[in-house]
Design a protein that fits this description.
about 120 residues; 4 helices; about 70% helix; about 0% strand; flat; plasmid
């Protein structure tokens, strides 16, 4: 196990950290996006490998997955999952970077709710 990567240890480059964009916040967000992009690429590669292995084993492959049509319950579950992950991933930035816009949206939703209940 000595050759495994220690994920608890944080890697930081030494020396000054230049600010590429207008602010450190924008730089941090860009870094987050690039890190997430890397994770998506790894996931895509792993899914591709699984699809190919399943096809080679005579089960199903990429074409079968492309043709898959989810039923209503699956669509509902996927929608709920998507909304939850959007809230988790984007909610923090939304709450911290756009508090005024969030307050306006909450006010609007409150008025909309009041009007639609009557």
């Amino acid at each position: 196990m000595a050759d495994r990567i220690n994920l608890d240890r944080k890697a930081h480059s030494k020396g000054s950290q230049p600010v590429i964009f207008e602010s450190e916040t924008t730089d941090a967000l860009a870094g987050m996006v690039l890190a997430l992009l890397g994770e998506v690429v790894v996931l895509k590669d792993r899914l591709d490998a699984n699809e190919r292995l399943l096809a080679a084993a005579g089960l199903h492959g990429p074409a079968d997955i492309d043709m898959f049509a989810p039923d209503a319950q699956t669509k509902t579950e996927r929608s709920a999952y998507r909304q939850a992950i959007y809230d988790r991933v984007l909610g923090s930035a939304r709450d911290k970077l756009m508090p005024e816009a969030l307050a306006q949206q909450n006010d609007y939703e409150g008025v909309l709710d009041a009007v639609t209940r009557d």
